[in-house]
Amino acid sequence: MKVGKLDWKDLKSIIDENRAVKRKDVRIRSGIGEDCSVVNFGDKECIVSTDPITGAGLNSGRLAVHINCNDIASCGVEPVGILVTILAPEDSRLEDIRQIMREMSSEAGKLDVEILGGHTEVTKAVNKMVISCTVIGRGDRGKAVSTSGAREGDDIVVTKYLCLEGTSIAANDFEGKLKNILTSAEIDEAKNYINYISVVKEGVLSGKFGVNSMHDITEGGLLGALWEVAKASEVGFKIYEDKVPLREITLKICKKYSIDPLRFISSGSMLITTERGRELVHMLENCGIKASIIGKITGNSYMMVGRDGVQHQVEPPQSDELFVLEEKLK
What we know:
Layout: H1 8-17, E1 26-28, E2 37-41, E3 44-53, H2 60-73, E4 79-88, H3 94-110, E5 114-122, E6 130-140, E7 155-159, H4 164-173, H5 175-178, H6 184-192, H7 200-209, E8 213-216, H8 221-233, E9 236-240, H9 248-256, E10 270-274, H10 277-286, E11 291-298, E12 302-305, E13 311-313, H11 321-329
Parallel strand pairs: 4-5, 9-12
Antiparallel strand pairs: 1-2, 2-3, 3-6, 4-6, 7-10, 7-11, 8-10, 9-11, 12-13
């Protein structure tokens, strides 16, 4: 099997074949593109999500907190607590685990999220550190935003810049290999992108503003996230490549190693659809968050207009370009 997420058809069939129970108090449940489930508890809702970190070396504790809290934020609510499972290979040191937990404690503290518990184990089942987290959020009943709420005619908005996570991982894990294409200052800047991968602020602000759908852009990059939103919402999309916000450092890395930045892991950017795109962009920028309208939700075709003006059909998401980059930089 290929490294990365399962093919969407395979994943959907596994989910559909194994849903033995559908409880009435579950308002939003698992599905393609839905990273969170929402459970009614009276006048409040519990929002839950889980994700592992397997593709990062340095800063993996920091990333684990943010990619999971970002999922909760994509529902428009604040994360409250996090459960942590660490599976460590036999050659791990106790200090390695301590460092992961120091990172997680520091980042969770910045978000006012409590580490509620979890499990730590040294096992022969893994050959590198695996961190898996479950995050819990709380919101008012009926208010959580779903991935599947995109509507035809919505503006497509993305926050900050794409590929912040992928660029940061490349600079932190392969600094020596990048010195032939980036200056020392550019490498330092790329490393620093990890400080901008939280989308909790824009997620909560957008939830209060009132949007139709949100999805944090993670494995599979922008095109993977768009594809998942469209599939979950039974709509299409049309975006413009020249409107997609990318850092020059990211473009240098992608050009050198023939990486598609639109399929490169992009925690740090939230994908939002709303009929009031300009108002949302204005609100977010007034709060210090860069935002860009990159296209529209359409009927049923998945299209991108390239920089050359030629329209292309977007194919289903494949393995993230991070795995391709790691192979090339080994």
